[in-house]
Amino acid sequence: MDVVLIFNGLGNQMSQYAFYLAKKKQDPRTKCLYFPDPGTCQHNGYELDRLFGVKMKNRPDTFLGRFFSWYNWSQVCDSRKRHWLRVIMKQLHVSLKHEPSYAADPEMLNSVEHGVRFLYGGWHCEDNFKSVESEVRNLYSFDDTLLNDKGCEILKQIESENSVSVHVRRGDFLTDGFGGICTKEYYDSALAYMNSHVGNPHYFVFSDDMEWSRENLKCENVTFVDIHHGKDSWKDMMLMSRCKHNINANSTFSWWGAWLNDNKGKIVVVPERFSQRLDSGAIYPKEWIRIK
């Protein structure tokens, strides 16, 4: 039995659950487990239930969650206990498969595990869940009625103009291998590309650092969307998905905003690399425009 681990922020959770749906289609025994990684930022906790009605039966305090905790402990406890616990885990055929590259892994998707295998990864490449694309798009449908008056006003602008979302992710992305990618030079090039391919663009900027965005993004006809914070942050993703075109950060949050954009003529501009540590070009659909 395979168990897909769900953790981190909204964009990651959406990718992991989409992979789980594809995996479960291949092997109905597949389970998913929400297990916050103490070493990473969890943002607003488990959000798939609140936004999309995805109930999570398996959490840290359930049997499967405690079993995973036991497995984790068997890897880090003192050497004598670790030896015997690893012997037990081996006899039970319990293992952990880590997929750090974000690339599609057909073997991982299609293989059937006879013991218990925990799957830890991002699974952001759309090939990981292409087989259930319609189901994923139907599931990840946002409720417009939850917008406040200002949000509704912005949505009307987005739908009536040549709207282009611009996502600027800074904060925790300035370090840990994700910094130095979406620089001012990247946004200058991305805006220049959009200006040359979209007539009369209206830019809608979404960011966790509006001060930096206002100082560095040089474009005409721009709206800085600074009304959603904390547990309302998902509304930025919804508005991004309703724009005609998208300029992304190296972020799964804007990845999903662009992927859920159903404009058939959309242009999506992304940074060539998603991480400094990995050659992660496979994370992007082939038709998206990569800029160094």
What does this structure look like?
By secondary structure, the protein is an alpha/beta fold. It has eleven helices and ten strands. The chain has a six-stranded parallel sheet with strand order 7-6-5-8-9-10, sandwiched between helices. Strands 2-1-4-3 form a four-stranded parallel sheet, with helices on both faces. The termini are far apart. The mean pLDDT is 89.
Largest sheet: 6 strands, parallel
Q: Whole-Å distance between the termini? A: 41 Å
Number of strands: 10
Look at the structure and give the mean pLDDT: 89
Shape, per Cα inertia axes: elongated
Task: Please report which band the strand proportion falls in: under 5%, 5-15%, 15-25%, 25-35%, 35-45% or over 45%.
Answer: 15-25%
Please give the radius of gyration in angstroms: 20 Å
Considering DSSP H and I runs of 4 or more, what fraction of the residues is helical? 25-40%
Strand line-up of the largest beta sheet: 7-6-5-8-9-10
Class per helix and strand makeup = alpha/beta
List the quaternary state of the chains. single chain
Order of helices and strands: EHEHHHEHEHHEHEHEHEHEE
Could you name the ranges where pLDDT drops below 50 across 5 or more consecutive residues?
Answer: none
- Helix count equals 11
